Amino acid sequence: MELLLKGLYRALDMLTSADPELVTILWLSLKVSVGAVVLALAIGLPIGTWLALGRFRGQRFLVALANAGMGLPPVVVGLTVAVLLWRSGPLGSWGLLYTPTAMVLAQLVIALPIVIALTISAIQSLDPRIRLEAMSLGASTIQMVSVLWREARLGIMAAAMAGFGGAISEVGAVLMVGGNIRGQTRVMTTAIVTETRMGHFDIAIALGILLLLLVFLANLVLTYLQQRQRYD
């Protein structure tokens, strides 16, 4: 209990004093995770819609693959991305390993299946007559998809929230590809691991509290937008 109180006090102190290192870590955490989720939405929404509407051989397998991808082990993701970006790897010439870009890529791999799977669920839960009506009125494919996305906007926002939560709370993959370099690639989760290993439990608890606060505030904004869309 004493450690928890010390952690809470330390969290308040770090917030009120606007600790420069904490600000850097918070900003990088948000930048990496938001970047990963934006990319996941840009890629996952079209793929999820295609899988939800398409009728082709192997469709069910791909849907099952997307659902299974929601449980991807982060360390496996980190290992895969690290091997691809390693100096002797196929993408080693890009020089991205141990950079925030590599961390975005790792979080993208984690968030993408979540977005795809939840988009499939959101689109398939719509009344089929919406699609048929749009097509009967002469809507193009793009216009029809836009209508479906508007009707499924609550589910799509839920996909964004789930993807963000999966990305920002990840530690194994970003640790492997980012290296946890102070001032460069250290984010909230890796900072918590570092402070715990050093025995600085009060700082680790403080960072944990701040991470929970960050996730809550981000999801509060997304939930507000989601519920606002509900009445539009």
Q: How does this structure look, described?
A:
The chain is globular and about 65 Å long. It has a domain at about 25-185: MetI-like (MetI-like fold), CATH 1.10.3720. The protein has eleven helices and no strands. Helix 2 packs across helix 8 (about 155-170). The chain is an all-alpha fold and about 230 residues long. The chain starts with a helix and ends with a helix.
What is the compact description of this entry?
With 232 residues, the chain is mainly alpha-helical.
Count of DSSP H/I helices: 11
Mean pLDDT: 87
| CATH architecture annotation of the domain at 26-186 | Orthogonal Bundle
What is the helical fraction, as a range of percent? over 70%
Comma- or semicolon-separated keywords:
mainly alpha, 0% strand, MetI-like fold, 232 residues
Structural topology:
Blueprint: H1 2-16, H2 20-53, H3 59-69, H4 74-85, H5 100-124, H6 128-136, H7 141-151, H8 153-168, H9 172-178, H10 188-197, H11 201-230
